[in-house]
Write a structure and sequence with these properties.
CATH class: Mainly Alpha
Largest sheet: none
CATH superfamily: Multidrug efflux transporter AcrB transmembrane domain
Number of domains: 1
Distance between the termini: 96 Å
Mean pLDDT: 78
Strand content: under 5%
Length: 228
């Protein structure tokens, strides 16, 4: 495959020391793959920014949406481990699987954070709200993961025939979901607790600065005289 051959070609002395005025062009499959990866990054970045904007409006908090966005970093790690174990290279089905994976992982973390924020808005303490969110939302998260993994197993096992090109997509989704679900249930509550502590600390400091500015007396000028 070109993914295995081209790195070896680029290491050849002739290619590394091209004459003046001679450039290497990416044509054919290489050009198509470069364009595919470029537009994939644009679509992924646009989707992440849109989700972040919606979460800021939903939570009415600034740091809590970063917890959801941070959970998206876990998904490619599990997918990369699964692809490395199975020996599958990057391809279009892999990119499609990553898009699917990002949506499911974001949904799982939103279930946890949204429930905790809602409980805190009703007066529940932070630690109790996080515990309640993990207790009430763990079951739907695990059920979604099990159902999605079960649906992707036949695709991942399509080793021959016309459907074999979709096998890397199934491997990507299965590996990313299993890995991210375990870490989401562990890391998202911890990161959310830290984010709330930082928000409260910033709020206290800002309130203190505003209070000092409001009660600060004028440094110069005469006191107003009563009118006769």
């Amino acid at each position: 495959m070109s993914g295995d051959v081209w790195p070896k070609i680029n290491e050849l002395p002739t290619v590394k020391n091209l004459p003046r005025g001679v450039n290497k062009l990416d044509l054919g499959d290489q050009k198509w793959q470069a364009e595919l990866f470029y537009y994939f990054l644009i679509a992924l970045g646009s989707g992440v920014l849109l989700v972040f904007a919606v979460l800021v409006l939903l939570y009415r908090r600034f740091l809590a949406p970063f917890v959801n966005m941070g959970s998206l970093l876990i998904a490619p790690l599990g997918a990369a481990i699964a692809l490395h174990i199975t020996g599958n290279p990057l391809s279009m089905p892999v990119f499609i699987g990553i898009l699917m994976l990002f949506g499911i992982v974001a949904k799982n973390s939103i279930l946890l954070v949204d429930f905790a924020v809602e409980m805190m808005n009703h007066g529940m303490p932070k630690d109790e709200a996080i515990y309640e969110a993990g207790h009430k939302r763990a079951q739907p998260i695990v059920m979604t993961t099990v159902a999605m993994v079960a649906g992707m197993v036949p695709i991942a096992l399509s080793l021959t025939g016309d459907s074999s090109w979709r096998a890397p997509m199934g491997v990507t989704v299965i590996g990313g979901l299993i890995f991210s679900t375990i870490l989401t249930l562990l890391l998202v509550p911890a990161f959310f607790s830290i984010a709330i502590d930082i928000e409260q600390w910033i709020g206290r400091r800002f309130h203190k600065m505003v209070g000092q500015g409001a009660h600060r007396a004028p440094s110069s000028g005469q006191a107003p005289q009563p009118a006769e």
